Amino acid sequence: MSCFENLMIGQAPALKTQLRAAALAAATDVPILIEGESGTGKDLLAQAIHRESRRAGAPFVAVNCASLPDGLVESLLYGHRRGAFTGAVSDQTGYVQQARGGSLFLDEVGELPGPAQAKLLRFLETRECLPLGQAAPERVELRVLAASNRDLAADVAAGRFRQDLFYRLNVVPVQMPPLRERREDIPALVDYLTVQLSRQHELAPPRYSAATLSRLQDYAWPGNVRELRNLCERLLILFSGREVQPSNLPAELRTPQAASRPGFALPAGGVDLGSLESDLIQQALAQAGGNRSRAARLLGLTRDTLLYRIKKWGIEC
Ligand SMILES: Nc1ncnc2c1ncn2[C@@H]1O[C@H](COP(=O)(O)OP(=O)(O)OP(=O)(O)O)[C@@H](O)[C@H]1O
Ligand SMILES: [Mg+2]
């Protein structure tokens, strides 16, 4: 598991469980669907899976499905022959052919338009694709990794994503936990990112006082590890070789976070914790428009934990 341990910093159980599943799946050829909020490390994990797989010597090709221009999706993915359409002046290989023998990483896979979803499903089932303008299909052997920062199951329920494709991709799901659900990893991440960034910028790393680290651990990190990395970069540049104090942090981090750790005052007569929990879950689901991932985020839970509790309390949704 060397790549996972070297590349993905974190010891929190919420992350470790997911990395363990990813490492087991990496050794096989099954598709892996990586879900998680923006900045939680989905790209980094996809690369680590590729490097840990028997395809490590072959290409890793990342495609951002959200940025494929409408009308060109098919030709960019599967290629085209010269003259296939106006403007096709030469033969062009697609991302699929470029990833031959290696891994094709379909980032933001939920953004693929409907017809492209159907073609991807066909490719996954037959391993054959048809470049535009080519008479016979060609066989391409590769492993598909996919990522989404949207709740794909909810997209399926809403009719935005094909259920059959979802099942094909979701053989081994990996849910990257948000940083606020693994706050214990923040000091190690700050260390790692600071060393990495100080090498890159050729600057002496700053030191973080215990009070500063504690503020970082209290913050909710909506942008997850990417937001933490950006802050480490800023602080490296501004406080190279010096100690960072809480007063040096941006305003939203300077004071202990009331919002991220709300304190409910227990009424003198006590509460019925079960019905309070069930009520809060229903409120979160309503506020999130039924999106379970978003509702889980509102409650500071993982999606799996929320699903468990929805079942436990028999909540209709
Ligand atoms: N566990 C980790 N250890 C070290 N660095 C990490 C870790 N997780 C994320 N990072 C770093 O945080 C940044 C964001 O990670 P990444 O791009 O993989 O996130 P993402 O989930 O793909 O985000 P998005 O949904 O916006 O594409 C990168 O610089 C990455 O190297
Ligand atoms: Mg990404």
Automatic annotation (TrEMBL):
Example of a GO biological process term: regulation of DNA-templated transcription
Keyword Transcription: yes
InterPro entries (UniProt xref): AAA+_ATPase (IPR003593), AAA_lid_NorR (IPR058031), Homeodomain-like_sf (IPR009057), HTH_Fis (IPR002197), P-loop_NTPase (IPR027417), Sigma_54_int (IPR002078), Sigma_54_int_dom_ATP-bd_1 (IPR025662), Sigma_54_int_dom_CS (IPR025944)
UniProt keyword terms in alphabetical order: ATP-binding, Nucleotide-binding, Transcription, Transcription regulation
A GO term, aspect molecular function: ATP binding
Sigma-54 factor interaction domain: residues covered: 8-237
Listed Pfam families: AAA_lid_14 (PF25601), HTH_8 (PF02954), Sigma54_activat (PF00158)
Protein name according to UniProt: Sigma-54-dependent Fis family transcriptional regulator
